[in-house]
Specification:
This protein has 21 helices and ten strands. By secondary structure, it is an alpha/beta fold. The protein folds into two domains: 204 residues, Rossmann fold, CATH 3.40.50.720; 246 residues, Orthogonal Bundle (N-(1-d-carboxylethyl)-l-norvaline Dehydrogenase, domain 2), CATH 1.10.1040.10. The longest helix has 30 residues. The two termini are 39 Å apart.
Length: 489
């Protein structure tokens, strides 16, 4: 892993205390926008290739942040793209030179940000690379392509800088919180950045400028390899796949115990996306348990200690398959097999029919944290945290990929709609992973964790939770959290 400390010739940096040391971070905010021309020195045209959720959000944020500069933001799309009409409605047009063929836009840009799907990048990266002008910088928001190139024995083209800025939230969150930042300075989605190749010595400040322009309140350093491993593992575990497995298995457990569908939904999905997520976001992981009465803590402890081991085994298995390329290959193979065919929807299972009624009666009731659900969810989150820590990821990456992205970006959207909606409407890479691993979590918890929860809690595991270093890391990160919750209306 790369050093977590770095310097900038443009931006004022801070040192954040984390377990076992320090990390250098950049605290964002609109007061830094005046420094963007210096950070983007040598860049007169930014090409954003793709108009999915990230492409749309990043193109709009970059354009808005750079409006008073001589830097142009253009969107490049494949010929015949159905997204062209929406890009035009947002002000990117052929007439203004800000909308065009993806290869043309790439060839004319000084910074080429590749935000097409992972499978499309695998299929077309060589075409894009071949069009780049000398010294153009390649920008990524995910390290998937690096993993593919290494698996295939290839690399990025020589002579080009390769940087990444990776928002720790989906595209809708990146745009929505940026817009909220117009009223509340610092509102935005945290980002990691990586410098993979830096032939001109300008890559760090360029990446930091890109992150600031996206509205990131907190930017930390990682590597492309570390990013794609933590990101893809997280999608399949606590951010999406495991959440789906958790709520489906808990719903079944509560129904078998005699609860009606609406109550079972409230105790499972509604609890995870509502009171549990809000508690962690505002007060940390320990607060989930501390807010319970003594009987509730006993239930939490039994659920937590029964869940941790099977959760850790699954997260480790996912990590190994990401690290050795198996999971990346499965995404590429699935994309080739499925092509443009739609995948069947997870949201057709029986539990999701109760969601509409649950959401309709929220205003009339304040749900308490359900102890058993809280224990299962928290144990899964800690299992991912421990796996990342053992694999030497930086603490900023650990808490953002395992906690902050979940409770401040994804779970609020799941709360507004439901978990199944998110699984059925996320990126194909994430969707394929959630569909593969969600059932694994569901079956492991039903067959292993829940029967074991009838036994007394493991006291050593609970002591490890109480004294876990993640609490220190989250406390430090919380000082950088925007004062506003994301609006999902």
């Amino acid at each position: 892993m790369t050093s977590k400390n770095y310097t900038s010739r443009v931006f004022p940096l801070e040192t954040m205390a984390v377990p076992g040391g320090t990390e250098t971070i950049l605290r964002g905010g609109r007061h830094l926008f005046t420094l963007l021309p210096e950070a983007f020195a040598g860049v007169r045209r930014i090409g954003v290739i793709g108009w999915g959720p990230q492409g749309r959000a990043q193109a709009l944020n970059l354009r808005d942040s750079l409006v008073d500069t001589d830097i142009t933001v253009a969107v490049g799309l494949r010929p015949g793209s159905a997204s062209a009409a929406d890009a035009r409605t947002h002000g990117f047009t052929e007439e203004s030179g800000t909308l065009g063929d993806w290869l043309t836009v790439a060839a004319e840009s000084d910074l080429v940000i590749l935000l097409i799907s992972d499978a499309a990048l695998v299929a077309h990266h060589q075409e894009i690379f071949a069009t780049l002008k000398p010294r153009a910088v390649i920008g990524l928001s995910h390290g998937f392509l690096l993993g593919h190139l290494r698996t295939a024995g290839n690399d990025f083209p020589d002579g080009h800088g390769v940087i990444a800025v990776c928002p720790k939230g989906m595209g809708n969150s990146v745009r929505r919180l940026y817009e909220q930042g117009a009223q509340i300075n610092g509102a935005g989605i945290n980002s990691s950045f990586a410098v993979h190749a830096d032939p001109d010595g300008r890559a760090t400040d360029l990446a930091l400028g890109w992150s600031v322009a996206l509205g990131s309140p907190y930017t930390f350093r990682t590597t492309l390899e570390s990013e794609y491993r933590s990101d893809i593992v997280g999608e399949r575990a606590i951010l999406l796949g495991a959440v789906h497995g958790i709520v489906e298995s808990l719903y079944t457990r509560y129904r078998l115990a005699g609860d009606d569908p609406v109550t079972a939904y409230e105790k499972s999905c509604e609890n995870v996306t509502g009171p549990i997520a809000r508690t962690i976001s505002r007060a940390g992981l320990l607060a989930v348990r501390e807010g319970l009465d003594s009987a509730g803590r006993e239930v939490f402890d039994c659920a937590y200690t029964a869940t941790y081991a099977p959760a850790r085994e699954l997260v480790a298995e996912i990590y190994d398959e990401v690290a050795d390329g198996t999971e990346l290959r499965s995404v590429v193979l699935a994309e080739r097999r499925l092509g443009a065919r739609p995948m069947s929807e997870i949201g057709r299972s029986p539990m999701w029919a109760a969601g509409t009624e649950v959401r309709a009666r929220r205003a009339a009731r304040e749900l308490p944290v359900e102890p058993f659900t809280a224990g299962v969810f928290t144990a899964t989150m800690i299992a991912q945290i421990d796996e990342f820590a053992e694999r030497s990821h930086p603490w900023s990456e650990i808490v953002n990929e395992s906690v902050i992205e979940a409770v401040d970006s994804l779970l609020p959207y799941m709360h507004a709609r439901d978990v199944a909606y998110m699984v059925d409407n996320c990126s194909r890479t994430a969707r394929l992973g959630a569909r593969r691993w969600g059932p694994r979590f569901q079956s492991a918890y039903e067959q292993i964790a829940y029967p074991a929860s009838e036994l007394p809690a493991n006291e050593s595991l609970m002591r490890a939770f109480d004294t876990h270093p993640v609490h220190e890391a989250l406390s430090a990160a919380a000082k950088l959290r925007p004062s506003v919750d994301i609006s999902v209306s």
